[in-house]
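Usage

Read records sequentially. Each one opens with the input sequence:
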Amino acid sequence: MPLLIDVRTREEFEERHASGALNIPVDEICAGELGILKGMPKSTAIELYCRSGHRSETAKEALTLLGFTDVTNLGGLGEVISV
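and closes with the structure output:
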């Protein structure tokens, strides 16, 4: 089962998030602060989302540059859960 990661801010995450999602803000990912991803196999399946899909695409590109090979941008929160 893929890791579901919300790349929005902690405040946005606290307001509402998909069930089972972890929060690693895009700014942290881009800075190499990977939280739970640190030390995980680069082949770990990761699914990302944000509000509109823009930040999750930025996070996907950063993770790919860091060597992760199975990263998917799911788009916005509304596409991940029923609004």
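Summary fields computed downstream for this record:
- Residues 33 and 46 are 16 Å apart (CA to CA).
- The mean pLDDT is 95.
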